Amino acid sequence: MNSRREQILQSLRKDATGISPKSALPSPQDSSIYRNFETAHQNPLQVFSQKIAALKGEFYHASDEATAAKILRDLLNSATETNIKKLAARHQHALLDRIFAVDQWFADNVQAIDHQKIFSPDFAEFMIGITAVDFLVARTGSIVLSTATAGGRRLSVLPPFHIAIATTEQLVVSLDDALKAYHERGESKRSSYATIITGPSRTSDIEKILVLGAHGPKRLAVIVVG
Amino acid sequence: MSEFTNFVSRAAVKASDEVHRRKIAKAVATYDTAVTGTKANQFSDWQTARNLAAAIKNYSLENLADLLEQFEANFVARGGKVFWAATAAEAADYVLQLAKDRRAKKIVKSKSMTTEEIDLNEKLEHAGIAVRESDLGELIVQLAGEKPYHIVTPAMHKSKAEISALFQEKLAAPTTESAEELTMIARRHLRQDYVTADIGITGANFIIADAGAISMTENEGNGRLTMSCPPVHVVIAGIEKVIPRLTDLSLFLPLLATSGTGQEITCYNSIVFGPRRNDEDDGPEEMHVILLDNGRSQLYNRPHFREALRCIRCGACLNACPVFRTIGGHTYNVTYQGPIGAVISPHYNGLPQFQHLAFASSLCGACSDVCPVHIDLHHLILENRVAAIREVRQNLFWRAAMKMYAWMMRSRPRLNLMRGFMKLGQPFLFMFEKKPAPKLAAKTFAELWKEKA
Predict the structure, then answer these.
(1) At A200, phi and psi to the nearest 5?
(2) In this complex, is the C-beta atom of B282 within 8 Å of any C-beta atom belonging to chain A?
(3) Model confidence pLDDT, tens digit, residues A66-117
(4) What residue of B is the nearest CA neighbor of A51?
(5) Residue ranges of the alpha helices (H) in B393-444?
(6) How many whole angstroms separate alpha carbon B355 and alpha carbon B304?
(7) CB pair distance less than 8 Å for A147 and B271
(8) Model-level pTM greater than 0.80?
(9) Backbone angles phi and psi of B393, in degrees to 5
(10) How far is it, in rounded angstroms, from Cα B363 to Cα A111?
(11) Is A206 on the interface with B (CB under 8 A)?
């Protein structure tokens, strides 16, 4: 707090332009403004997978956790020409723990990171970050991550390849659904940070030419279980 | 030379620079194609979407003081710090003091026009602190020693070849004509800076009152890294950025992306509620939000102008403006270029010095047509002209000329006499112009009418 606070607030309360009466606050969701994909006889998961593909992300659907583990292992093996050993990192999360328990191979090849390890200088060298998610948004093909479910802030952005693992229950239709659900969790369950990710990192700053992997992950893969 | 004469000479150079014109025309054409497609694919009713956005922003402005207090209370409860800055200097000094207190040697920044507005980089560098712009476009203009050309596309005016030459000179990078390779040079150049910087500075696209959070929109991921890695995160945001509810983002994020770049939603939209919580793996230990007034409360209380504070800085009015496309962003010599700049800059930077920007418009209204929050930009530019003439331009010659003109126009014989003078004088009037003189018709409409009858 500082002396300017009162001064600024006061000048905003003068209301010298005399706009009155005050207007009502409309809801941000007017269903008529967006194109509605339900009318095109598509289910949300189909829409999500198409959106991800259009954004040059990768989509994998696994019927169960064992299949998800197989897809994940193949992805990790294909990710680099060199041995991926100790170049992939993940965090502690119930869904991830179950998938990683399927195959002993993961224990030798993927590091579980925590508050200590994430600050080690080596972490900047990691090639792959594996995280859980909070929500998947069908309409925009987005994934929503918060710090609590995604193992902090940098695991999903510093490594050049981000693999997000979700379940079909986490899929919602619109961004509004995701934000509403997140907000309704209440103060104690909201993290300090949440991010809506829509495709791999990109830029068009040079002659409007699209380039992937500007500063964030160049590759984004989403595995949906269920 | 005054700001005005400088403006005119810069504009004259740019307007006849065909290479510059081609670059901007190409960039704007790419933008237009993307925007048109996205508007049609994503929205079934774009007009309703922008009316809704304008209504939510109007509500926010009517309740601005209350919403700012609500934001502050929620944010501070989570350990965040809020600083209210009345002027650009106060905001910059706060950051400078913070940097000194934390013994900061290096600061990494993501793109923020508000930091440009307060000349933050210059002040920090003057104090011996290294400032790394991390947005690709911002890095390019920083290395070139220039200001951003455009509020959304800072390096719109630079070709691949120019950027390659710049990277070769400043970063000892190999020559390349590939946008991808140039981007990777920037990526490698900044990689270590995120993890070694002492402070990360970002702007905010929205201040969210009910969540006590800020939201930041980007595509590259440099913003996410800037607010994830350094131990201190500083946000500088104008007080007009407030929206009432977290869920309002579900309208504003698609709206901003559509008008800003022609995407349905940008790659990353981060919502920051505060510094790292104890149960989280990483994140800054400290987070500061600087709420910047710097002329906004004055604009707020100026008749007609409050709606200019609805602006979400998408840059659509710049791309649509025939004057911007001809004279380019740097000619304006202000932080916010184009039509929105012509509306707000004279009030932020001093009407006497920047009143001429009100005349940098054809008043065609293309800006008002594309504005996603329905700001009546060209009428506000006209308001600025009125203010400029009433409050600043006491030009006796101009007044006499206008009086003369009015006198001429009020009578047919006098107008005919005027036409005679025009015919004689025309070659001289256009002597110093680059454009050819328009041909006057051989006969006037009145003469033709008479002949027909």
Answers:
(1) -70, 160
(2) yes
(3) 999 999 999 998 886 555 666 899 999 999 999 999 999 999 889 998 888 8
(4) B264
(5) 396-409, 412-429
(6) 17
(7) no
(8) yes
(9) -80, 90
(10) 61
(11) yes
